[in-house]
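In this supplementary section we document a worked example of the pipeline. Step one takes a protein sequence of length 212 as its only input; no multiple sequence alignment statistics are reported here. Step two produces a three-dimensional model, which step three serialises into structure tokens for compact storage. The input and output of this example are shown verbatim.
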Amino acid sequence: MGRMLNIALPKGRLGEQVYEIFERVGYGCPSILENNRKLIFENEDTGVCYFWVKPSDVAIYVERGAADLGVAGKDILLEQCPDVFELLDLGVGKCRMCVAAGKGFRDDQDRTLRVATKFPRIAADFYSGKSREIDIIKLNGSIELAPILGLSDVIVDIVETGTTLRENDLEVIECILPISARLICNKASYKFNYEQIGRLCGLVTDFIRKGQ
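The serialised model returned by step three reads:
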């Protein structure tokens, strides 16, 4: 076995789902389930070292080489454009990046469209492809408030069930792309730890295909 593989997991439900996949394919680390304040969890028997980080920071740890592998949503990868390899679609954390607006909204093409979002790059790329002039309003939370209070015409945000939109009299008017969790890899790590990383990817791929 080669050196320990460092794997950055996103804190929260998504990270827990992904860890369960790794555990099921033989890369478990029992100490990660203990109720403690440790930040790093190692298992020398399986050769893995996990650590929890904020979801938006995973790609940074991987790109900079602090982690060999990491798990990040496709939304984060498109917004941050990190210099990493995207190895696998893990098939969890599924949702959609959508444009939403108040019910009955009609886009007036004669004026600039005001777009509130946490994802300015994704929004800009989407509307650039439609040759639509927009004014991006970058927000960090409660995106749904923007059209309700007249701050924006539409929002670009992640939609999972659509419940929050419906409860605020908003609706999806366009779907930009599907989102899911991706396994990403540091480029140097991929070169120098190809066998270890390839073995893990193969086991995870088989697990996903079997749908277990």
